[in-house]
Amino acid sequence: MKRRSCKNNDLLNKAREVTTPKVYSLVTKLVNDEMEDMAEVVLKVDYLLTYVNSAIKSKDIKVAKDSLNIIRKRLDILSENQVDINHLEGLYNDMMKSIK
């Protein structure tokens, strides 16, 4: 099977525009491993982490906590499917620390 890249896959094309290189690398690996559904979960977690960061900056702690609970559930789904989530876990833990 041909290796997928941002040139021949819509999900990767969109991901390349809005994610960091580490997240994009993870999404690319998942898409090429035929785990496109998990790649979409990674993109959702990345978006939620960005949302939580802006909520923390605007001092909206309740929204940040609610969103972090959603992120935790999605990270659990990814870890159950043996997805390497070290980078996302690190970001999640940093945001948890900043709320306390």
Describe the protein's architecture and organization:
This protein has 100 residues and is mostly helical. The protein has helices at 10-18, 21-32, 36-57, 61-80, 86-99.
Quick tags:
mainly alpha; about 100 residues; about 75% helix
Chart the SSEs and their pairings:
Blueprint: H1 10-18, H2 21-32, H3 36-57, H4 61-80, H5 86-99
Summarize the structure.
This protein has five helices and no strands. It is mainly α.
Largest sheet, in brief, is:
none
Q: Which regions are unreliable across 5 or more consecutive residues at pLDDT < 50?
A: none
Rg over C-alpha atoms, rounded to the nearest angstrom: 14 Å
Average pLDDT figure: 85
Structural class: mainly alpha
Beta-sheet strand percentage?
under 5%
Distance between the termini: 47 Å
Helix content: over 70%
- The total strand number stands at 0
How many DSSP H or I helices? 5
H-E string? HHHHH
> Which geometry do the CA atoms define?
elongated
